[in-house]
Design goal:
single chain; mainly alpha; globular; about 80% helix
């Protein structure tokens, strides 16, 4: 994508975000939103913020396990700091260069090859997204509420789960077979695409037969999603939103899936719209739902700012080490 098209895409996303925010604000009394903020329980907010750090630690543990299988050694604190920096890049860069790119770069610095680094981050992200869609599908199957924001939403989630299962099966069980096939035949005039695929499946072939690694990483992924749900539940409690925990097992996975649709910058506007719509199913006012949405955005932005500080300190330390 050239620079002109990229700028137009960013502008379109900004416009969509502004339109969605405008729609929400036209239907909500801001005085009620500020009232919800004023009665917020600070200790519960701090607890929710702490769970965000817990989630980063869980991802770091999963990442460390995937790295170890590839023979890449990394300390747990280093991976946690990289995760915090990734939050900064996710929040303050518009799209293409995000947290995953930063994590891939860090993997490369730890000793992984370029293809290996990207592949490890890909499979880490795949495990997380697969578990998220599993939660979302279960939530959709168990609820009687109408939570479909576009036609065949449940079908699309089911399709995503199926694709995730197929991808995990191929990468953890059949990558070595595909790798051998790609290495067979005449290797002198190999096209670029086949060469790239060969490198990628060589990386994933290492995981074949590592059923224990797959089990642990999937368990960590489930634990991560549970942590995310409790994080949001504490936020709801902090704003005195009367909603059962069981409802959050439906709202949060579906909301996150919808927010993954890249139609605006950092899901601004989409986040507000989806939480207002989903919370209304359980009798929560639009003002309280909007306060909840903004509170979650504030916390992730604060963590992103902290990630920026960590990134700057890291760059300064690296510069001093090289001089």
């Amino acid at each position: 994508m050239n620079k002109k098209k990229y700028k137009l895409l960013i502008l379109l996303k900004v416009l969509i975000a502004l339109v969605l925010i405008g729609i929400i604000l036209s239907k909500v009394n801001l005085d009620d939103v500020w009232l919800a903020f004023s009665r917020a329980n600070k200790w519960l907010i701090l607890s929710a913020f702490f769970l965000y750090f817990v989630g980063l630690c869980i991802v770091a543990a999963r990442w460390k396990l995937l790295l170890a299988v590839q023979g890449v050694t990394a300390s747990f604190p280093t991976l946690v700091k990289s995760m915090i920096v990734a939050v900064f890049f996710n929040n303050f860069l518009p799209s293409t260069i995000g947290g995953d790119a930063m994590r891939a770069y860090d993997t490369w610095k730890m000793g992984g090859g370029k293809t290996q680094s990207v592949s490890i981050i890909f499979i880490d992200r795949l495990l997380g997204i697969f578990t998220l869609f599993m939660f979302a599908l279960l939530a959709l199957l168990l609820t009687s509420h109408n939570v479909f924001f576009f036609p065949d939403f449940k079908l699309w989630v089911l399709l995503a789960v199926f694709v995730g299962i197929a991808a995990i099966y191929i990468l953890f069980f059949k990558a070595s077979v595909i790798s051998r096939y790609l290495h067979s035949g005449n290797q002198e005039n190999v096209v670029t695409l086949k060469r790239i695929m060969r490198k990628v499946f060589d990386v994933f072939a290492v995981y074949n037969g590592k059923h224990g690694v797959l089990s642990i990483t999937l368990m960590l992924s489930v634990l991560l999603q549970l942590n995310v749900i409790f994080h949001y539940y504490l936020l709801a409690l902090s704003l005195s939103i009367d909603i059962p925990l069981s409802a959050m097992f439906i709202i949060i996975p579906v909301a996150i899936v919808v927010m993954m649709i890249p139609v605006s910058i950092n899901a601004i506007g989409v986040r507000e719209l989806v939480f207002v719509a989903l919370f209304s199913l359980y009798g929560v006012s639009s003002a309280d739902a909007l306060a909840f949405s903004w509170m979650s955005f504030i916390l992730i932005t604060l963590l992103g700012v902290f990630g920026g500080v960590v990134f700057m300190l890291r760059k300064k330390y690296e510069s001093q080490s090289q001089s």
